[in-house]
Amino acid sequence: MGEVADRSVEQGHVVAAQRGDADAFAALVRIHQRRAYAVARAIVLTHEDAEDAVQEGFLHAYRALQRFIPDQAFGAWLHRIVANAALDITRRKKVRDADTLADTMASPFRDPAESDELRRRLDEALASLGDRQRSVIVLHDVEGFKHAEIGNMLGIPEGTARSDLHHARARLRQALSGIRSHL
Questions:
Q1: Which domains, and CATH codes, for the chain?
Q2: CA distances from 183 to 127, 139, 143 (A)
Q3: 108 pLDDT higher than 50
Q4: Which of 7, 11, 45, 80 falls between 20 and 30 A from 111, CA-CA?
């Protein structure tokens, strides 16, 4: 019953926000901001770009709120908007500087030198992937989204998300092969 209750509370916030209640929209932001950041961070390379994408996504959602149908899942709609904002930022950015992965990812190694080298190599390997492959692998393997959810967020068929994940993993395996011998 919790999910149904949460959904009806969310729908109430959506309807109130559509009527101009700024507090209701602020409640929707609070409910979805962490997941929206995770979606954006999976697509862009830097924390700053992820924050910009989330901000742009929420702004766009606010402006488009009147077109949203309240019986739909607000989170899925919002995450698609945020994903598109993140992809737009990625497309606009000509020079990318590889930032570290989200700080929430713990390294299994104890030696800080090994951890730093592994993180550097992983960052380089992720940066070498295309935007969509990087997005799919991080959304799936780090954030735990399902193939269908990833497809919806990125506007691609579920099968394409599966294929991109397979190819991204293969490229990462190749890029990281022999890493144990270098550490």
A1: 2-92 (1.10.1740.10), 112-182 (1.10.10.10)
A2: 20, 28, 27
A3: no
A4: 45
